[in-house]
Specification:
- The model has no long low-confidence stretch (mean pLDDT 92).
- The chain has 2 domains: 3-89, Elongation Factor Tu (Ef-tu), domain 3; 94-237, Threonyl-trna Synthetase, Chain A, domain 2 (Threonyl-tRNA Synthetase, Chain A, domain 2, 2-Layer Sandwich), CATH 3.30.980.10.
- The chain is elongated and about 60 Å long.
- It has 3 helices and 16 strands.
- A hairpin with a 2-residue loop joins β9 (119-125) and β10.
- It has a 6-stranded antiparallel beta barrel.
- It is an alpha+beta fold.
- Helices cover 19% and strands 38% of the residues.
- The longest helix is centred in the middle third of the chain and has 25 residues, at 91-115.
Amino acid sequence: MTILLYQTDSYLREFEAIVTGVDPAEHGVILDRTIFYPGGGGQPFDSGTLADGGEQYEVVKVKKVGGDVLHILEGERLPAAGAAVRGTLNWEHRYQLMRTHTAMHILCGVVWRDYGASVTGGNMEPLRGRMDFEFERLSTDLVREIEDKINVEVAANRPVRVASLPREEAFAIPDLIRTKINLLPEGITEVRIVEIEGLDLQADGGTHVARTGEVGPLRIPHHTSKGGINKRLYVELQAHPS
């Protein structure tokens, strides 16, 4: 089983690992530990490089395979099982996703706190994302109000903390699951919790910044109805926090 280093420290940019498995069909390797996020919860997978002695491989895709993380590599060769490798993230891409994912939690926290609307879906890419909520009506004035409120939370520079709790203890927390459907598999005994102090507390497996101020100013450039009570809000971030 691959140790997920990013779950306890999203700011790691490099790491050392041992190849524990090779998959020629996928042209990838499994490592005993990794900082590469394999995608999930709307957050895309990371990219970067692995180095094996004097050779460097581009990591072009990362995905979960059971309890392991498969790193799919570009090129003809693959590191051998048992080889020591050094991994390096495409940090700009990762950090933009960390900021974007945290922005989604700020939006979700504000909408839940002030309007009691559940999340029905979401997705993100670097510096932009979208989230669907159960709103009966969503006017332009209300969207501007939400935009103002999420920027107040950015300016508050609230701490963002991560913890892991036993499943039973985690599910005793009211409103821990904000999605309309509980997507946590039954087999998960430990639940990773992401908290924005004073605003939001959710079960989540992705990567986040340490404080909301790192997200930078947010825009909701447009919104749309997805049918019935499902309303979609789009969020954009600046390339660099001001």
